[in-house]
Amino acid sequence: MIYSRFMKKINVSALIFLILTLANSATAQVNQGMSLDRLNRIDKVMQDYIDQDQLSGNVIYIARNGESVYHKALGQRDVAANDNMERSDIFRIASQSKAITSVGIMILQERGQLLINDPVGKYLPEYMNTTVAEDDGNGGYTVVPAKRSITIRDLLTHTAGISYGNGPGEQAWLDSGIYGWYTAERSEPIRETVRRMADLPQAAHPGEKFVYGYNTDILGAVIEIVSGEQLDQFLKDNILDPLTMNDTSFFVPEEKRDRIATVYSLKGDKITLADNPGMLEGVSHVGQGHYIDGPRQSFAGGAGFTSTAEDYGKFLQMILNGGVLNDVRILSRKSVELMTTNHLGDIPYGAGLGFGLGFEIITDLGKYGKPGSQNAYGWGGAYHSVYWIDPKENLVVVYLTQLIPAGGLDDQNKLRALVYQAIVD
Question: Among 190, 333, 388, 421, which is 20 to 30 Å from 289 by CA?
Answer without folding.
Answer: 388
